């Protein structure tokens, strides 16, 4: 993806003027925040880069209302610092993917919405999309659009809030977002089950999530991955409990009693637990390698079967988050990233979707990066995109494979 002239409007009105002129002249725009995820998606050509980096700052935050509104270019670190001062957090535990993409820059809150980035707590608190209450954005006509609000039920007509989440800058230029926030969880500890196979771990995680112990994170790391997270003792199945220390102690005993068939266990104290889950959240075991990396979402009990089917045919390794429903799959095959093998495994194991998060540009140009949609869904998606960006100026071709022809 070539470097382009970067325009960073200082106001929403300025952004609208730029987009209006671009639509009139047929100038295509790469939509970006801090630039940390530029290498995700199909390679495409654009005339200029429109960045939200200068649209920064928290515009409204009343801790008592559990809602924070910020301009799209606000650094995530600034958001988390403000929430931390008030004992609150973004419940969906967003990850920092700079280690995966190899990109410099600063993660922004608008990008969390645009890419729907969600971490380990998704199994208990939902995804970024579920916490997103409202958006302001500029559509492809240069019109300023506001949708949603400060309460979960403020939705009328087309739910553009949910459409913008995960649209990767193809529907509009986000200028402001509102998120529901929650009180911080207090302390935490993690029960580690040592030595379980992938299949055994799937059953153990399902049993743990079926208890009343309020597990807020469930991940399984095969032995090699566990070592990179700093855990010895073979494969590690992690079950996180959060809250008051007295409550955690009682719930840990109850959780152990609910898993009588588990191999040996140990407990990570707060510091070690936070460190381990941060590494899982940021996919640190697979950071910095440059090898093809897939993010596969399937039913929780299907994750280990998908990984096994793929790894029987292609060398690589995997680990599992979201109770096994999220498979991070790193492959050694650098030629074509084995998309047919990955997606066939997903289909045979009940369906889901697989996204090629990291691969060389030539590989991403030759395969569908995002899960191909069924024809009726693809047609509907195209109608929505055309309604919001009729001239097709935003990130043209980023999410849709064109059979290997580079989008222009």
Automatic annotation (TrEMBL):
<feature type="domain" description="FAD-binding PCMH-type">
    <location>
        <begin position="1"/>
        <end position="184"/>
    </location>
</feature>
<dbReference type="GO" id="GO:0071949">
    <property type="term" value="F:FAD binding"/>
</dbReference>
<keyword id="KW-0274">FAD</keyword>
<dbReference type="InterPro" id="IPR036318">
    <property type="entry name" value="FAD-bd_PCMH-like_sf"/>
</dbReference>
<dbReference type="InterPro" id="IPR016166">
    <property type="entry name" value="FAD-bd_PCMH"/>
</dbReference>
<dbReference type="InterPro" id="IPR016164">
    <property type="entry name" value="FAD-linked_Oxase-like_C"/>
</dbReference>
<dbReference type="GO" id="GO:0019154">
    <property type="term" value="F:glycolate dehydrogenase activity"/>
</dbReference>
<dbReference type="InterPro" id="IPR016169">
    <property type="entry name" value="FAD-bd_PCMH_sub2"/>
</dbReference>
<dbReference type="InterPro" id="IPR006094">
    <property type="entry name" value="Oxid_FAD_bind_N"/>
</dbReference>
<protein>
    <submittedName>
        <fullName>Glycolate oxidase subunit GlcE</fullName>
        <ecNumber>1.1.99.14</ecNumber>
    </submittedName>
</protein>
<dbReference type="Pfam" id="PF01565">
    <property type="entry name" value="FAD_binding_4"/>
</dbReference>
<keyword id="KW-0285">Flavoprotein</keyword>
<keyword id="KW-0560">Oxidoreductase</keyword>
